[in-house]
Amino acid sequence: LEVDLYQFWPSFCKHFFSLFSFTSSGRMKNVINDIDDFIINEISDHLQDNGEISFIQAYKEKIDESTRNEDFTYQHRYLVGHIKEFLIGGIDGPSISMQLHMVMFAARQDDIQRRVQREIDVAIGHERLPTWEDRKLMPFTLACVWELERWKRTEPFGLPRGTQEDVVVDNIFIPRGTVVLFNLWAVSRDDSLWRNPHHFDPTRYLRDDGSLIREKPAHHVGFSYGKRSCPGESFAMMQLFLMVAFTLQRYNVHLGEPLSCDLDDPKIDLGVLKRMRLRFERRLRNTIACDNAFE
């Protein structure tokens, strides 16, 4: 597993390089500052709206309550941070996953892509747009979405957590305040949990009759693990399913250049896959009715 060395630099190094706008750290800092400014303005506008109660309004009430009680668990800067996580997590994560889906469909056009398109043709046709309800008739397509979240992870270790109290795990003492990382990549590649774990195989989630298993295995940790797993998992699954169905309903996806690596190779990281060029060819079937739905 390859991880950018930058991730292990001391924090003062990251801060130093972020002072210069020509560095990647500096550019990222400017982007984050712009996002913060946007969120602050949106919060201000939203609090002036007397409509239905929202997350922002509920959090603001908690801030006021904490201030009165001199308990600073809830603060305005935390509200900005939470909304920023919603925005970045809801946009960046699914977009990267969608790129990887398209690369896989292009590389395995004859078996994976064609099978998904057959499901689309039968369950949806070409006279309407896909809906989330269509997943009930498209088990292989949904299995592809599940499998990609296991096969190529965007976050090998997920987000760091911290112990709130002293704890002993397998006779190992972990003091309060310890940063804990889950090795999600290792769980996803454990051959005692997965058959041929390095291989992209959506059929691992299907029964013998081709139907989808009732729920994902407990060791499928595409969205982290435990009570603090990603709260946007359901939304992300819905979003990815609809984007895959929408795209393959209209297009055949081809590699823009010959494949120079084995996609199942665990050493092939996301950076390599994201740089691959793809070509989208309009399918011969009529999709004009679906396109008109956007007009």
UniProtKB/TrEMBL annotation:
InterPro entries: Cyt_P450, Cyt_P450_CS, Cyt_P450_E_grp-I, Cyt_P450_sf, Cytochrome_P450_fam2
Cofactor(s) the record lists: heme
Gene Ontology MF terms in the entry: heme binding; iron ion binding; oxidoreductase activity, acting on paired donors, with incorporation or reduction of molecular oxygen, reduced flavin or flavoprotein as one donor, and incorporation of one atom of oxygen
Binding site for heme: 230
Keywords recorded for this protein, A-Z: Heme, Iron, Metal-binding, Monooxygenase, Oxidoreductase
Source organism, top-level taxon: Eukaryota
Pfam families: p450 (PF00067)
Keyword Glycoprotein recorded: no
GO CC aspect terms: cytoplasm
Gene Ontology biological process: organic acid metabolic process; xenobiotic metabolic process
Family matches, as PANTHER family: CYTOCHROME P450 508A4-RELATED (PTHR24300), CYTOCHROME P450 FAMILY (PTHR24300:SF375)
Family: Belongs to the cytochrome P450 family.
Protein name (Swiss-Prot/TrEMBL): Putative cytochrome
Organism: Rhipicephalus microplus
Lineage, highest ranks first: Eukaryota, Metazoa, Ecdysozoa, Arthropoda, Chelicerata
